[in-house]
Amino acid sequence: MSIFSKIVNGDIPAYKVAEDDNYLAFLDIFPLAKGHVLVIPKKHTDYIFDIASDEYLELWKFAQKVAKGMDKVISCKRIGVAVIGLEVPHAHIHLVPLNNVSDINFERPKLKFSDAEMQEVATLIKSAI
What we know:
Layout: H1 3-8, E1 16-19, E2 23-27, E3 37-41, H2 53-73, E4 78-82, E5 93-98, H3 115-128
Antiparallel strand pairs: 1-2, 2-3, 3-5, 4-5
């Protein structure tokens, strides 16, 4: 079972920003930028291109809704999108606030924020969705 499945099941806490019956968005605990969000299908699928077509499209619609909320409350030029698929064996979309192209470089050292800062950002994004 992946760490993301454990989050879906409530076995591991997460800073959730949006959720419905099929999809979940939460803050990345190893962010590239403040407000970096992961969007996942609740149904475990390792590889994003193995998701059924209708569910794949709904995942991206859900991610778009989250990104639009982020755009309202995070100070950045754009919300960047990445699908890497190597770090966790559970399909996920990275939504990363960007001011420069280097902001989405996954080889950069990850940032660390306090629990209070993470909760504040999660609440801010959640309120804008």
